[in-house]
Amino acid sequence: MSGGPRGFIVAAARSGAGKTVIALGLMRALARRGHVVQTFKCGPDYIDPAFHGVAAGKPSFNLDTWSMAPPTLAGLVQRHAADLIVVEGVMGLFDGVASVGQTARGATADLAALTGWPIVLVLDVSGQAETAAAVATGLARYRADIAVAGIILNRVASPRHLATIAPSLEREGLKLFGAIATNNRFALPERHLGLVQAVEMADVPQRLDLLADTVEASLDLPAIEAAARPTALLATGSIAGLRPPGQRIALAQDRVFTFMYPHLLESWRLAGAEIVPFSPLADEAPDPGADAVWLPGGYPELHAGTLSAAARFMNGLRAHAARSVPIHGECGGYMVLGQGLEDASGAHHAMVGLLRLESSFAKRRLHLGYRRAKLLADNVLGNAGTEIAGHEFHYASIQSTGDEPLVDCRDATGAAVAEAGARRGSVSGTFFHAIDRWQT
Questions:
Q1: Which of 15, 210, 386, 420 is deepest in the core (most CB within 10 A)?
Q2: Does 1 have pLDDT greater than 50?
Q3: What's the CATH architecture for 248-437?
Q4: Residue 184 CB partners (closer than 8 Å, separation 6+)
């Protein structure tokens, strides 16, 4: 067994089972007990890791086996070793894409097999009795290369309800770590891309303490701690990932522009780049000395009027473009670089106009999935011919565009998708978010 950092993965049979809430409660409770807790999120997610960071008191990182190459995954785990690793899974335990990506299929079980960390399985047992034990047994035995350390029953209605399930788990040799009663106070507010962001909720610490109090009262924390196992991932000396887009990077960062993967910023800094944040929402211009500008995704549709009136921000971007400084936008940032944005009410808002994109939220259409994109020209993401692994998740539609395409884009199956990005001079944008350079 490797001597790497000890950890476990919180997983569930499906989305909506309470995995995020219980994972947050565990993170907070273990940190309050004096552990240095490093948190990770399985899969391409921006919102949950921000809550992890508040819960454990240190930044959380994504671990994605479809889009990340093995050196990227191993490097993240080894650089962020701690007393205890707690990973929040994605969707259901075995839910991934059909094809293998850079490392595996993106499922939580794939990450468990790769790392050797055991599964702490959350089961939503509302509306179930002994059947819940059958579900747990099936999940625990479905793959021989992972281990289910124990079960947390969620949304238990009463002690009598618990008594209809617990004996069956014991009979099947499955350890019960405890049960969480149904409680609507645990719910976190949501919007169309997931939870309302942690940065928008002033009472996040109090909510997390409530969750931790419940976890401490309801679960066998010492047993969960003891179930953690060292990782089987081998250390790597290389720093994998996308190259920095510049030496001094102006990064849009506020309540609008929040969807930036921490592992990218970390790899850029390790490569010697300097990150200079600025707030478009506060009408701040990017640093005039920057040699690259990056606009992450987020929620421009919720603040389109404010952004449209942010003259210093827009004029600062235009001045950089006039000097041929590379400017790149992802998803929300891409839309802001366009001509205009139509919000959900149908109101049109003028954007920066460095690209010809017109986008709309008036008629929502889900765009979701992994992306493998080959660059058609040299740009901030890499040289022409380089392939980028990424992920697309938004509800915007393209009304019109007229710039040169940036990428030839495929989904996880290799099928072509409409997302081609755009480039015009030194300015570029994509609806997909870059995660790693394709290395296989």
A1: 420
A2: no
A3: 3-Layer(aba) Sandwich (3.40)
A4: none
DSSP assignment of 238-259 equals ---SPPPS-SEEEEE-SSSEEE
Check: CB of residue 39 under 8 Å from CB of residue 77: no
Residue 402, burial from CB neighbour count under 10 angstroms (0-12, 13-18, 19+) = exposed
The alpha-carbon radius of gyration of the chain (Å, integer) is: 22
- With residue 77 as reference, give the H or E element that holds it: helix 70-79
Of 90-99, 190-199, 211-220, 276-285, the range with the lowest mean pLDDT is: 190-199
Answer whether 407's CB lies under 8 Å from 421's CB.
yes
Per-domain residue ranges for the chain?
6-230, 248-437
Residues in the chain, overall count: 440
Q: What is the pLDDT of residue 92?
A: 98
Looking at residue 363, its pLDDT comes to 81
* Topology at the third CATH level for domain 6-230: Rossmann fold (3.40.50)
User: Does 409 qualify as catalytic in the annotation?
Assistant: no
Calpha distance 300→402 (Å, rounded):
21
Nearest alpha-carbon partner for 76 in 225, 230, 233: 233
The tens digit of pLDDT for each residue in 414-439 reads 999 988 999 999 999 999 999 999 98
For range 205-219, the mean pLDDT: 93
Q: Residue 191: is its pLDDT beyond 50? A: no
Cβ-proximal residues to 390 (8 Å cutoff; 6+ apart), any chain: 67, 370, 371, 372, 373, 430, 432, 433, 434, 435
Neighbours of 246 (CB within 10 A): 18
Which member of 119, 321, 331, 427 is catalytic? 331
Average pLDDT estimate for 68-81: 93
- Measure the CA–CA gap between 27 and 23, rounded to whole angstroms: 6
